[in-house]
Write a structure and sequence with these properties.
4-stranded antiparallel beta sheet; elongated
Length: about 375
């Protein structure tokens, strides 16, 4: 329970490589609406003009696929001087087509080179931007800017003009992998994710997006419209659900353990009233009696904590794939949880121990 609760907190503050501030996304599919490839670009441009006319919308970008979204593409690439993995003919690298404003709107930094521009047209030289992970893997000892990559099935190569920071692409917590960005004007995306940001609430932007799209083309297929927070919440739901469920069970387990411990300690004290009376009558100090009761209560908890840590370390390895930004062997959890149990045991033993320290030797012996 502690690992999952900590994982959720880490996931919420995780650096995804792109901006998660307020905004909205509309996913449209022109191809499913009967729009041919020649008309695709002009349709998207009309959508951009209409959406930018919405009061309060100040930034707009499009992408065939957004980070942590659906519609992920992967294709074969040839890179001069780089051999494909054993058993494969080409390098398999994920890619997406984006607008020239994409990196600015998404808050993805350029670590080298330049971003796309409006001068990158269909008739000009083909250009690409690669992720930092791609640059480090394929050109580890030199700059990637200026290098050429060739997409399988195409004769014209792409010249790399920039290197972008890494982002989460498919799932939270994944290792950064090579990625290629192509400009939309030099390809025909199957769909378009329209990302809009501005000074108005994100829920209002989402509603305005749907209305604007309907005004431009009432027949256009809209797969979904959502806020950026809703987009991210889909990936945060599994750890949140696990955290809530295990948190409830963990709390109930703590309550049961504390209640059971209190009952056990109280019962043992009542059984040893005669012994307490004899000890007190022979001059035992009250604090020694209290210490004895505490040792009897906390001792088993300490032993159980050691055993529990050993079992927990083994079980934690099985759930490491479900944790985000948190090690399965997190020392804060594996030291903090036993500490909580020791504190709970101490509280549970307090009243019985206090009662034992106030035993009247005469009354204890008389009652026995």
């Amino acid at each position: 329970a502690g690992l999952f609760v900590r994982s959720v907190r880490s996931a919420q503050g995780m650096d995804l490589g792109f901006s998660t501030r307020d905004g909205a996304i509309a996913w449209v599919m022109p191809g499913m609406s009967g729009v041919d490839r020649e008309s695709h670009e002009s349709l998207v441009q009309r959508l951009e003009e209409r959406i930018l006319a919405i009061p309060g919308v100040t930034q707009l970008a499009t992408a065939e696929m957004v980070p942590l979204g659906v519609g992920l593409h992967s294709t074969g690439w040839d890179i001069p001087g780089v051999d494909p993995p054993a058993g494969q003919e080409h390098l398999s690298i994920r890619y997406t087509l984006v607008s020239s404003t994409y990196f600015d709107v998404m808050g993805i930094p350029l670590v080298a080179g330049r971003a796309f521009s409006k001068d990158d047209r269909s008739e000009s030289e083909r250009v690409a931007i690669v992720s930092e992970a791609a640059a480090q893997r394929y050109w580890p000892d030199e700059t990637a800017v200026g290098k050429e990559i060739r997409r399988v099935g195409q004769e014209m190569p792409y010249r790399i003009v920039g290197v972008a920071g890494d982002t989460e692409v498919w799932t939270l917590g994944e290792d950064f992998a090579p990625f290629v960005y192509l400009i939309r004007s030099q390809g025909t995306p199957a769909g378009a994710n329209i990302i809009a940001r501005g000074s108005i609430p994100d829920t209002e932007i989402a509603g305005q997006l749907r209305q604007a799209i309907r005004e431009v083309d009432s027949q256009l297929v809209i797969m979904e419209t959502k806020t950026m927070r809703e987009h991210l919440s889909v990936h945060l739901f599994p750890p949140r659900a696990a955290s809530a469920l295990l948190g409830v069970f963990g709390f109930l387990a703590l309550v049961l353990a504390t209640t059971g411990l209190y009952g056990t300690v109280a019962f043992n004290v009542s059984r040893r009233m005669k012994e307490m009376g004899i000890r007190m009558s022979l001059g035992a100090e009250a604090r020694r009696v209290v210490g004895m009761v505490f040792r009897g209560a906390v001792g088993p908890v300490a032993v159980g904590g050691i055993v529990g840590i050993g079992l927990g370390l083994g079980l934690a390895r099985a759930v490491r794939g479900f944790l985000y930004g948190t090690s399965a062997l997190d020392p804060v959890i594996f030291l903090g949880v036993p500490a909580i149990l020791v504190v709970a045991a101490s509280l549970a033993a307090y009243l019985p121990a206090r009662r034992a320290g106030r035993v009247d030797p005469v009354e204890a012996l008389r009652s026995q």
